[in-house]
Design a protein that fits this description.
Layout lengths: L25 H16 L4 E3 L9 E4 L13 E12 L2 E7 L2 E10 L2 E7 L5 E7 H14 L10 H20 L1
Antiparallel strand pairs: 1-2, 2-3, 3-6, 4-5, 6-7
Bound molecules: nickel (II) ion.
Length: about 170
């Protein structure tokens, strides 16, 4: 089966605020599985539902695996909420929806998230470093925020220009 397409900046669907999931149905389970497939295929370490065009509060994350080793341990978080954010850390971030770009972003260094898993059970995730950064990045997607919304206007402007040029060149091909 074909993989779901990852939406890319400046697709307006990435700007939507996602809705909470009221019931964990087969549709939601299929979506979570599809998102894991996309995440490993890209490859990436996290993916939020709005990135595949679904404005739902769900993301998947796996910061442990790599293409040359490491067990795959995908975690699905439904209706996630921060219960703790502490410290600060600056991390160079990228995003499957923001092609060919990385930039430093300031984040909390350590977080706790409460969410539901695919069985509807409450889970508590504590994370620091890369995993904490990734969690905050994915949470942002659920609110229609990209990491480039958290960098300076100047940097964002330069990237937006570059991206528009790139899209114009692709359109001519
Ligand atoms: Ni992203």
């Amino acid at each position: 089966m074909a993989l779901r397409e990852v939406l890319q900046f400046p697709d307006p669907r990435l700007k939507r605020v996602s809705e909470p999931i009221s019931e964990i149905t087969d549709v939601i389970r299929d979506l979570a599985r599809d998102m894991c497939d996309v995440m490993y295929d890209e490859p990436g370490i996290g993916l939020a539902a709005p990135q595949v065009g679904e404005a739902l509060r769900l993301f998947v994350i796996d910061t442990e695996w790599s293409e040359d080793g490491g067990e795959r341990e995908p975690k699905v978080l439904i209706n996630p909420e921060f219960t703790r954010r502490e410290g600060s850390i600056t991390w160079e971030e990228g995003c499957l929806s923001v092609p060919d770009y990385t930039a430093d972003v300031d984040r909390a260094a350590s977080v706790t998230i409460r969410a539901l898993d695919l069985e509807g059970q409450e889970i508590i995730e504590e994370a620091e470093g890369l995993r904490a950064v990734c969690m905050q990045h994915e949470m942002d997607h659920l609110d229609g925020i990209l990491f480039i919304d958290r960098i300076s206007r100047l940097k964002r402007g330069l990237y937006t220009k570059k991206r528009k040029k790139q899209l114009a060149a692709e359109a001519k091909e």
